[in-house]
């Protein structure tokens, strides 16, 4: 537009105007020469981007892609159920994807229980029978058990016979009498009688001695009566206990004989029963551990939610970033190609108003 001047004749147009017209024609020529490359690029990117977006992205979001993959015979010779060792199984990609989105374990997702039976593989009962048979064949032999030998028995019997106390009858008869050999009260009474007959010079002394004797008798009765009674009871207790000592010793020896016979007869069975009880407790521990391992293996090990998230991330990167950008690219190039034809027409039409003419076209 800077070089265009309507008042100037076409044969006298300036170089700037002529250069503008030449550029118009050059642009039209380059468009004719290279526009097929642009059209081919638009076609290729359209076919790739559009079809991939519709076939992959749209079918992924509508789950039609999984339905297509689950179609029997889509891939000749490929069967997912047979590949996983499940004859007549119904495992498909849609089910695996949905279960992985729920963070299920691969054991449940792939139905591995149909291929590997954990109940048979981890069945401890098949070993319990062998253990029981081997345990029944076990023979327990113990060395002879001797609680008391004959010399010890004789020693106990002799000690029980030698432990008899002496005869306490004279001692008890003496304890039933007064503490002193004679009665202090009688002696005090005799002294009082002598005091009545004696002279005045010894009368008071005799009466004082009689009072002391009475006080001494009273003090002795108070001090020794409880002790003497306790001594009598202890003597009777010793006599009664000593009388039973030999019988108790014989009873204890009889119990020892019975215990020794019981141990010799039942000790092997007792050891065997207790060992089997301990073995059963160990087997219960193993069964508990196996149940825990089965529950962990089938429900917690190898959860496949990361696999589903990886596929979702791949889909997001491919569709939302790569394909969207590719589709925007061919869409923009397509509009450029669409406007290429009118631009060529306008360039050719405008060129004659800018280029310097050899002959003026006047009417």
Automatic annotation (TrEMBL):
Q: What is this protein called?
A: PRM1A protein
> Which family does the record assign?
Belongs to the prominin family.
Spell out the subcellular localization from the entry. Answer: Cell projection, Microvillus membrane
Membrane topology (UniProt) = Multi-pass membrane protein
Gene behind the chain: Prom1a_0
Extract the coiled-coil ranges from the record.
228-273
Give the UniProt keywords, A-Z: Coiled coil, Glycoprotein, Membrane, Transmembrane, Transmembrane helix
The protein's matches in InterPro entries, at most eight in alphabetical order, are given as: Prominin (IPR008795)
Q: What species does this protein belong to?
A: Chordeiles acutipennis (Lesser nighthawk)
Record has Glycoprotein as a keyword: yes
Transmembrane region positions? Answer: 23-56, 328-348
Q: Which GO terms describe its cellular component?
A: apical plasma membrane; cell surface; cilium; microvillus membrane; prominosome
User: Pfam families under this entry?
Assistant: Prominin
Single GO MF annotation: cholesterol binding
